[in-house]
């Protein structure tokens, strides 16, 4: 079950939607993160050229993640076809993050609903890169909608794209690249050179998925009572208003569908950063906007899964 398989994708999506990522179950991304930490320390000591060390970090991390996944799938397939199938489903499910994205973001929303802004800031800090200590309620809602919109692409649509393109091994390699970007892909003094290769590779592997996510959000909007016309308008107008070449695409489509305005001033490591506004403030950024974003995330996920399954079945015939 190393190659793309429609049954594996269908079961992996179902497993992710039902269970998500149980906290008691060891997750590959956690192990990838530990590997990155060890390799960073080792490579910084051994290689003086930071950019060269960063390139090697990318190759070693991605190669280890892909190779380990390949060995696991091959070894279980030798035991029995059922064991190989179950292993492929489990590996594929760990690459998806729809349920966990909903669960973690809902903790922030619930805390805000209860008037506990301190807990909301704390829970938000686990799922965003910006500083959260001094955010007010409006800024928390904005950060929450932005991260769900962006992670719909990074954490769901992109893994599905790579699952259907290259199978579980390719999807796990994508997760390694994504984890590298989240850990070393920063434009600060420590990681500007060392994380350069990881950040550029993350831009590359997310290029098609980010745009596909935006299109799927626009298609999904009317089924949820949201505005597809405004989603299309804001996507075309604001899709490039972000330092990242990919992030604004899903954010613009989501902002247009919801009728909200994203972007503005945020703080990262104590330094303020202004991102251009995306969307128009037609409706408030509040709990209803968040709930609509979650609904849009789920429908976009199901639509993408359906497209992947149909495409693979057509190729099989």
From TrEMBL:
<feature type="transmembrane region" description="Helical">
    <location>
        <begin position="296"/>
        <end position="315"/>
    </location>
</feature>
<feature type="transmembrane region" description="Helical">
    <location>
        <begin position="79"/>
        <end position="98"/>
    </location>
</feature>
<dbReference type="InterPro" id="IPR004485">
    <property type="entry name" value="Cobalamin_biosynth_CobD/CbiB"/>
</dbReference>
<dbReference type="Pfam" id="PF03186">
    <property type="entry name" value="CobD_Cbib"/>
</dbReference>
<comment type="pathway">
    <text>Cofactor biosynthesis; adenosylcobalamin biosynthesis.</text>
</comment>
<protein>
    <recommendedName>
        <fullName>Cobalamin biosynthesis protein CobD</fullName>
    </recommendedName>
</protein>
<comment type="function">
    <text>Converts cobyric acid to cobinamide by the addition of aminopropanol on the F carboxylic group.</text>
</comment>
<feature type="transmembrane region" description="Helical">
    <location>
        <begin position="55"/>
        <end position="73"/>
    </location>
</feature>
<keyword id="KW-0812">Transmembrane</keyword>
<keyword id="KW-1133">Transmembrane helix</keyword>
<feature type="transmembrane region" description="Helical">
    <location>
        <begin position="208"/>
        <end position="228"/>
    </location>
</feature>
<keyword id="KW-1003">Cell membrane</keyword>
<keyword id="KW-0169">Cobalamin biosynthesis</keyword>
<comment type="similarity">
    <text>Belongs to the CobD/CbiB family.</text>
</comment>
<keyword id="KW-0472">Membrane</keyword>
């Amino acid at each position: 079950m190393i190659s793309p398989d429609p049954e594996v994708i269908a079961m992996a999506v179902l497993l992710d939607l039902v269970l998500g990522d149980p906290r008691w179950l060891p997750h590959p991304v956690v192990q990838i993160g530990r590997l990155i930490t060890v390799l960073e320390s080792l490579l910084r000591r051994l290689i003086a050229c930071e950019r060269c060390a960063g390139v090697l970090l990318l190759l070693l991390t991605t190669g280890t993640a892909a190779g380990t996944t390949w060995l696991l799938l091959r070894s279980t397939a030798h035991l029995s076809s059922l064991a190989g199938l179950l292993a492929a489903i489990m590996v594929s499910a760990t690459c998806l993050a729809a349920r966990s994205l909903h669960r973690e973001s809902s903790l922030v929303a619930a805390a805000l609903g209860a008037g506990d802004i301190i807990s909301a800031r704390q829970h938000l800090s686990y799922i965003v890169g910006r500083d959260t200590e001094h955010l007010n309620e409006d800024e928390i809602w904005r950060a929450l909608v932005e991260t769900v919109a962006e992670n719909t692409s990074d954490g769901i649509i992109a893994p599905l794209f790579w699952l259907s393109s290259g199978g579980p091994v390719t999807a796990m390699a994508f997760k390694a690249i994504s984890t590298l970007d989240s850990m070393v892909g920063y434009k600060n003094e420590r990681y500007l050179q060392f994380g350069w290769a990881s950040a550029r590779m993350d831009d590359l592997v997310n290029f098609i998925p980010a745009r596909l996510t935006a299109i799927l959000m626009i298609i999904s909007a009317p089924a949820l009572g949201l505005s597809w016309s405004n989603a299309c308008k804001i996507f075309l107008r604001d899709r490039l208003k972000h330092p990242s070449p990919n992030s604004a695409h899903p954010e613009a489509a989501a902002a247009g569908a919801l009728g909200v305005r994203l972007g503005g001033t945020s703080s990262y490591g104590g330094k303020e950063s202004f991102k251009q506004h995306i969307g128009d403030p037609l409706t408030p950024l509040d709990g209803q906007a968040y709930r609509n974003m979650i609904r849009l995330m789920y429908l976009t996920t199901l639509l993408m899964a359906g497209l992947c399954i149909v495409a693979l079945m057509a190729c099989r015939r």
